[in-house]
Design goal:
By secondary structure, the chain is mainly alpha-helical. The protein starts with a helix and ends in a 6-residue tail after the last helix. It contains 5 helices and no strands.
Length: 155
């Protein structure tokens, strides 16, 4: 029962984070870029991030805690876990670090730039966020693929 609860929480938190990034990068970004002038686009993204980032801050500890718990419950610890588990764990940690960098560096600068109407600076920081979120989305998709089929890999 505890494993089922941990797994459900783990998957739900991953869906919120990776699904949110996928939607923002693949659906919202192209439309905002093609239909909004820079000031409106930058204000939109600050609002989107203000709503999305608290969900990510909630998801990250849930993913980490449940992932570590599942590793301990299923394999007795990371040392006895198969390679795909190590891959998921490593990619997840990298994703968390990238998110924290985005939050504390370019997103902070983006908020300041929008508040002071420094549109060129805001554009530079949104561009950096775009690249990092795109990379994190790719890492998230690879991690999901490892979760779904990693046990069937023969490396």
């Amino acid at each position: 029962m505890e494993i089922a609860i941990a797994l459900k929480l783990h998957v739900l938190a991953v869906v919120v984070w990776v699904g949110g990034m996928f939607f923002a990068w693949m659906c919202l970004r192209p439309v905002a870029a093609s239909q909004l002038e820079p000031p409106a686009r930058l204000r939109l993204w600050v609002g989107v991030f203000q709503n999305f980032f608290p969900w990510v801050w909630a998801a990250v500890p849930v993913i980490l805690a449940t992932g570590l718990w599942l590793i301990r419950a299923g394999f007795g610890g990371i040392g006895d876990a198969p390679g795909y588990i190590h891959g998921m764990f490593g990619l997840g940690v990298v994703m968390m670090l990238i998110f924290m960098h985005v939050f504390f560096a370019p997103y902070r600068r983006l908020r300041i730039a929008v508040a002071t109407e420094d549109w060129p600076e805001g554009g530079r920081n949104l561009g950096m966020i775009r690249k990092l979120v795109g990379f994190n989305t790719l890492l998230g998709v690879v991690t999901v693929l490892l979760a779904a089929g990693g046990r069937y890999l023969t490396l």
